[in-house]
Specification:
This protein has 225 residues and is α/β, with parallel strands linked by helices. It has two domains: 134 residues, ATPase, nucleotide binding domain (Nucleotidyltransferase, domain 5, 2-Layer Sandwich), CATH 3.30.420.40; 77 residues, Nucleotidyltransferase, domain 5 (2-Layer Sandwich), CATH 3.30.420.40. The protein has eight helices and ten strands. The radius of gyration is 18 Å and the shape is globular. The C terminus is likely disordered.
């Protein structure tokens, strides 16, 4: 049967869960965006594994999208992946969400991936096409004013990511946009990137946290008193 992976993607309002068998995503399910991921994720994953006849202890590992994205959604996904890896001893691969989104961009291009960081800010990261087969980060993930970021774009760079829904008007018309359906991370993209990454060590699994560059809204409000 080959390797068997559980894939968790909870970076947005609606999450996705999948099972990959023999090099492809064999089953998948969407989580209800109107419900909390922590209520639906575990039973959804269990149902998908059962449908494939796979017991949790038989998994090769779990791949989880680690952000940036929804603070609550990412925490549920990451904690679920850590718990599964701890209980079963399977591998855990942490997949940067923007890397999976870049994976869905037109081959051969350079792409800037963004998501909304609120208060006029965006998370942004640039990716380049290398070796005629894959995307790699061209710079570090950063949080910047949306207007400054948009002002530096050129016509030769594509733009992708869920942040386009909020900041599209600030982007020059001549800058190409990735189609809307490819601006959020699909399970196949998370899986494809994950296969190229090194699984975390036991110590790294214990330390793993969602990829944030700023506190949650609740933490920011508490800090302001």
């Amino acid at each position: 049967m080959g390797e068997r992976w559980l894939i968790l993607e909870t970076s947005g309002r609606g999450g996705r869960v999948g099972v990959a068998v023999g090099g492809r995503v064999a089953r998948s399910a969407d989580l209800d965006p109107a419900r909390r991921h922590n209520r639906d994720l575990a039973p959804t994953a269990a149902a998908l594994l059962a449908a494939e006849g796979i017991k949790p202890a038989e998994l090769t590992g779990v791949m989880v999208s680690v952000g940036p994205g929804s603070f609550t959604g990412l925490r549920v996904g990451v904690m679920s992946a850590k718990a599964l890896a701890y209980v079963t001893g399977c591998r855990l691969v942490a997949v940067p969400t923007f890397h999976a989104i870049a994976e869905q961009s037109p081959a051969g291009a350079t792409v800037e991936v963004i998501s909304d960081a609120l208060q006029g800010l965006v998370y942004a990261q640039r990716f380049r096409w290398v070796d005629a087969e894959r995307w790699e980060p061209a710079d570090e993930l950063r949080i910047v004013p949306a207007a400054d970021w948009a002002g530096r774009l050129t016509a030769g760079v594509w733009v992708s990511g869920p942040g386009l829904d909020v900041h599209d008007r600030a982007i020059p018309a001549e800058v190409p946009r990735v189609p809307a359906a490819d601006r959020v991370p699909g399970l196949a993209a998370v899986y494809g990137v994950g296969l190229r990454l090194v699984p975390l060590s036991a110590a790294e699994v214990m330390r793993l946290e969602p990829l944030y560059l700023r506190p949650s809204s609740a933490e920011e409000k508490a800090a302001r008193g």
